[in-house]
């Protein structure tokens, strides 16, 4: 009685093809933090947002870290592995740990303290 070679077994071929496809998919994601793309929009890493870009429209994507309730608005602290930023919005219902994408105006709030600038950038969604 002749035994079938291991490589030609249909389940083994399927597993091998699945492993190769998974490896190729992971290899193609090597530089995801600098050029993310969601819903056809260029996502800006939070680390790259500066006060000099004030009033420009940006898209950001990340995980909701905190919910900050405000009167008439909602604020969320968003983290994208390069940094964190506060997003001011009318949208509600986001939960901590959820992924979210926001489009908004980059704002800067100056906070002079003891002769030093301690201001922060944030996103205001319209």
UniProtKB/TrEMBL annotation:
The keyword Isomerase does not apply. Residues 1-24 form the signal peptide. Keywords: Signal. InterPro entries: BOBF_sf. Gene3D superfamilies: Bacterial OB-fold. This is DNA-binding protein. It comes from Dulcicalothrix desertica PCC 7102. The lineage of its organism: Bacteria, Bacillati, Cyanobacteriota, Cyanophyceae, Nostocales.
């Amino acid at each position: 009685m002749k035994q079938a070679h291991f490589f030609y077994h249909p389940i083994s071929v399927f597993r091998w093809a699945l492993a190769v496809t998974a490896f190729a998919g992971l290899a193609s994601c090597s530089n995801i933090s600098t050029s993310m793309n969601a819903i056809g929009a260029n996502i800006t890493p939070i680390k790259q947002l500066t006060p000099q870009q004030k009033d420009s429209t940006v898209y950001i994507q990340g995980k909701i870290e905190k919910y900050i309730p405000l009167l008439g608005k909602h604020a969320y602290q968003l983290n994208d592995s390069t940094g964190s930023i506060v997003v001011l919005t009318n949208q509600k219902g986001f939960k901590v740990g959820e992924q979210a994408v926001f489009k908004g105006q980059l704002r800067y709030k100056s906070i002079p303290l003891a002769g030093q600038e301690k201001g922060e950038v944030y996103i205001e969604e319209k």
